[in-house]
Amino acid sequence: MTQKSAAQIRKAFLDYFAKHQHTVVKSSSLVPANDPTLMFTNAGMVQFKDVFVGAEARPYTRACTSQKCMRVSGKHNDLEEVGRTARHHTLFEMLGNFSFGDYFKEEAIKLAWDFVKGEVGLDTKRLWVTVFGGEAGLAPDHEARTLWRKISGLPESRILDKGMKDNFWAMGDTGPCGPCTEIHVDLGEGTPSLEDFDNGRVVEIWNNVFMQFERRVKGELIALPKPSVDTGMGLERLAAILQGKRSNYDSDLFTPLLNATAELVGKPYGRSDSEDDVSMRVIADHARATAFLVADGLQPSNEGRGYVMRRIMRRAIRHGKRLGFESLFFDKLCAAVADTMGDVYPELKESRTLITKVAELEEKSFRRTLDTGLRLLADEVADTKKRGSTTLAGAAVFKLYDTYGFPRDLTEVIAREQGMAVDGEGFEKEMQLQQERSRGSDVGEAAIAPVYKSLVARLPHIEFTGYTHEDEPLTQRAGEWRLHGQAGHTYLQQKTCVVALIAHGNSVMEATQGDVEVVLNPTPFYGESGGQAGDAGLLLTETGVSITITNTVKPVDGLPVCRGKLTQGALKVGDTVWAGYEPSVRKETRAHHSATHILHAALRSVLGDHVKQAGSLVDSHHLRFDYSHFEAPTQEQLKKVEDEANGRIRTAAVVDTNVLSFDEAKQRGAIALFGEKYGDVVRMVTMGASKELCGGTHAKNTRDIDLVMITREEAVAAGVRRIEAEVASAARRHTERLATQLTEMAAILSGRRPPKADDKEPILQAVAKSVRDYEALRAELSGSENAAPALPLSDAQAPTLAAGFTDSDARGLRDLWQLLVQMTNARPT
């Protein structure tokens, strides 16, 4: 058996299958895209689910991946076992090869056998195989058994039958399913017993699933027209075996983290079951999970995925405190994860600063909470004794566990010292309720309606023609274009074809009056995605049918769907139509979208490279930009961000778009954004020093943005802040409003006009109220030695005027005040 590093094993696997015509597909995010059934990506096949069921088409029929996975919720919730067993983990890597209606059992078994025997050199005398032995009316998989005998030469005695629990796979109660065959390695001596397949001596390393049936609602099994293959092999297990280790934690995937933990705390790691060694393993495992989750855009919180993430982090921090860490440590170990695995997963390197900051702040927060928890436990013990009981309530014990990170065994130890017991049954009841709260159904994105999946699989590629800039001559564009005026609006329309219609949630061939969804090919309408609002507009036929398009969405990648109302006549699939949007609205939208890239670059320059976009919303009159940061930026920093953004705009940099492979774009320095799903081919948008992957529409030149004005800044979640801004015409209008307010405020403060009761602007109302209050106070104190000074007012009074406003409003108000002080000196005393 050849000893290889984990990196070598991963590369050998991907290279082997690439040599056998498999497309190497990058790992998808730990946060599944558009899947409400999953908390986290928990298997390599998750990103291919729609491919397997025929709802998504890809340009390949064979694929292989090294997929990062998490199993910490629902039926995979083994969190308390992590660190105490040799093979339980929160985060792990799953190596997999997939066939989408291409090869089936024979080639899958041959590929698997040749890899374990020839590529990594496992001792075939230690290999065992299991196949589906039949159950619940399903016949045994004799075909797989025969193929194993033919391909591997293993004796019948080393090919075992297993039931549905072990060797039959199903995507759910309905859908694709089929028998599977597993490869196992015997780590002991002599002939193993059946019990050894469950006690850890015989270890499963590879599961080959043969999807050959579809289970219908009533349980009926129908043979699939294109049987497929889905396999999975845990890298951690394989690395440990190939490196001659009995525990995954002794492989080179974990030893750097365990050594770093031991060095930081000043204790040796003994590879034993001692509590110190268990704590070190927990910390190493959870640091890996934390680093990957942050890199995929998550932040610890009190609900959904962020809630599970927080539990993982706090469990590691509590083990650190138990181990003896007096000062902060968790951020250093999370940084070590980024350093050791960043070459394979570049998102770790890119997010290294953010990862360490998240870990540091969570540890600071939890250390305060932990001290609070100890006090609460002491109070609970005292209250229980006062009630004459010697048993701590299960709900109270669970609250300590869930909210303050106290595991049940720690509470039991402290309770025992006080001569008390713990209500275990009550604790388990609360635990079950918590597990229900953390199931994936509460956290997933909105489910994609089957009609959209069906359409995207059936229709040819939809061409979006809206990237063309509106100032280019219509005669030079591909296809037929026109400008059409109607009801005071001007639309830029393209002659195109209706390729699908949806009414009442169903695909139809004809739609009449009422709400309707239209798919055009080609389409000039941008489907809402990447933070950019979808296009509205008008659709007309030569026969007079008119549809007002209120929004365009993209429920599935590659499927822009126009939603609107059919006011007269009927529309049919195959009809030729004139369809388009208002170019003036698109121009403003493009400017706002480009400004988010400029602001992102300016924020990273001023606040640090840990800043990453965490969401956005862009339309024709404003932009909203969420970013990762952990404290409110100062007014000086915000001004510097705004000034730098406007400086970048004034460079008049050409906005350049390149369509290229994802890997090449990353090599050129492009930033990929949280929460976005990128294919193998991407659009890289460059404007000056800013390079981002983005599918939105953009300005032709940064000078088209004209001006960016930050109008608001606030916190929206732990570690996430939000900037709102306006650009171009919207910013100019905002400036005009401020100038009008300034003039009105000057008039009030200088006495040129009295405050008006019908002043609608909040700032003017505040100024008027302050003047009234000031004059009333002056009148009350008139003649006394404490009389208030007459206007003009001074800078020192500005903060009082600003009270009650947001930071951004207050900043603007104080700036205006300083100008007003200079303008009100003529007011008589």
Description:
This protein has 829 residues and is α+β, with helices and mostly antiparallel strands. The protein is 38% helix and 23% strand. It is built from 23 helices and 28 strands. Strands 1, 2, 3, 4, 5, 6, 7, 8 and 9 form a nine-stranded mixed sheet that branches. The protein has a six-stranded antiparallel barrel with strand order 13-16-19-18-17-21. β13 and β14 (506-508) form a beta hairpin. α8 runs antiparallel to α9. It is globular, with a radius of gyration of 32 Å. The termini are far apart.
Brief characterization of the structure:
By secondary structure, this protein is α+β, with helices and mostly antiparallel strands. It has 23 helices and 28 strands. The strands form six sheets. Strands 1, 2, 3, 4, 5, 6, 7, 8 and 9 form a nine-stranded mixed β-sheet that branches.
The number of helical elements comes to 23
Give the structural class: alpha+beta
Number of strands: 28
Roughly how many Å apart are the termini? Answer: 96 Å
Query: Beta-strand percentage?
Result: 15-25%
